[in-house]
Design a protein that fits this description.
six-stranded antiparallel beta sheet; 18% strand; 2 domains; elongated
């Protein structure tokens, strides 16, 4: 009989824990998606109010505005706000549970604070997976469509067909210069390639008034060229009507728009990083930062969730408002720290991977301290 009663009691307790898990997961995800949806509606309204005159002036069709622009606008800004609203959502509903004595009731039922974190971590995992998948596979295509839409209907006057004053590093110690490039006919003007030795001295210089990209062979044809080579302090100059050269840079690299890095899927980003490493390009850091940011941001969801639960699981003076205020201060300091770290990497010698993970490393320690201080 006792065994039967014991078994029944255990089953009841197990059932209660499952109910609590579902309750917290529903509260977490429900609050998060509701708050994200609310801020996105506000963002869309303000963005439309700002751009409606441009849309009307450029005869943007309603279908393109909805499907080509705002349908891609929503996931981009949703992911942008995700870490902040994960934090706010956790603090909001957990503080409310603490005020209603639900946290005390959960802990008094025999569930440990560590066990209570399980549904929070399950919810954070769902959000992190969705965030990672959208950032690496969906949003790059959305950003590309947004850029094309803006170039056509928002500010077409700023969409210059001809790109001017092009400077690119195509290999280590090899530099390309082009006065202008037209992506329509794939022709460039005032073309120069300079190659320098390890001592920094010029070894060769290929120049021409024009250059043409052949899409069938994927080669550049340098027209009416002049080649200057310096060997053992002797200068050799040769000229010709045409010379073909295979460069690791294509028309798309020359005429790329601002925000190009945000239009690349994870595989495309990795392939482009390999190309930049081959070229020894100064742009490499920017793309490495983006690569590591795409991993660091989803991981931040777990850290901010732990901080949020630890902060808001006890009653404090000021109620929910005080908890949200502390949460906002911490989340904004995290974002600010992330921006400073990326700039130190771009302008200084800080490793891009370390730059993107330093805020997470620091806030892991903050989360650990707050977790230790949380009510058990």
């Amino acid at each position: 009989m006792e065994g039967s009663n014991g078994k029944k009691t255990f089953a009841e307790a197990l059932g209660l824990l499952k109910v609590i898990d579902r309750y917290i997961i529903r509260k977490f995800l429900g609050t998060f998606f509701f708050s994200i949806a609310l801020i996105l509606i506000i963002a869309v309204v303000f963005d439309f109010a700002e751009k409606v005159d441009n849309f009307m002036e450029n005869d943007a069709p309603a279908k393109a505005i909805i499907f080509d622009y705002y349908l891609n606008f929503i996931p981009y800004f949703g992911i942008l706000f995700t870490p902040l609203f994960v934090f706010i959502s956790v603090i909001f509903f957990t503080s409310k549970m603490a005020i209603n004595n639900e946290i005390i009731a959960i802990l008094n039922s025999g569930m440990s604070f560590k066990r209570m974190m399980l549904p929070y971590l399950i919810s954070a995992t769902v959000i992190a997976i969705v965030s990672f998948s959208l950032t690496n596979f969906v949003i790059p295509r959305s950003n590309q469509q947004m850029i094309e839409f803006e170039g056509k209907y928002y500010r077409p006057s700023l969409r210059r067909i001809t790109v001017e004053h092009i400077h690119r590093q195509i290999f280590k110690d090899v530099y390309l210069f082009m006065g202008s490039f037209n992506p329509v006919n794939l022709r460039g003007q005032s073309f120069t390639i300079e190659k320098f030795g390890e001592d920094g001295k010029l070894e060769s210089k290929l120049s021409a008034p024009s250059v043409l990209f052949d899409t069938t062979t994927n080669r550049w044809s340098v027209l009416n060229y002049t080649l200057r080579e310096i060997r053992d302090d002797e200068e050799i100059i040769s000229t010709g009507r045409q010379i073909d050269t295979t460069l690791t840079i294509g028309p798309g690299d020359i005429s790329r728009a601002a925000g190009f890095v945000n239009t690349m899927t994870y595989k495309e980003l990795n392939d482009y990083i390999d190309l930049l490493q081959l070229q020894g390009s100064d742009e490499l850091k920017l793309f490495l930062i983006e690569k590591h940011r795409r991993f660091a941001n989803p991981f931040a969801v777990f850290i901010l969730t732990l901080i949020g639960v630890s902060l808001s699981s006890r009653k404090i003076r000021g109620g929910i408002g005080m908890s949200i205020g502390i949460g906002l201060a911490l989340s904004f300091s995290y974002i600010l720290f992330l921006q400073f770290a990326s700039q130190f990497s771009l302008k200084g010698n800080l490793d891009p991977m370390l730059a993107m993970w330093i805020p997470n490393i620091i806030y892991i320690f903050i989360a650990f301290v707050l977790y230790k201080l949380a009510p058990k």
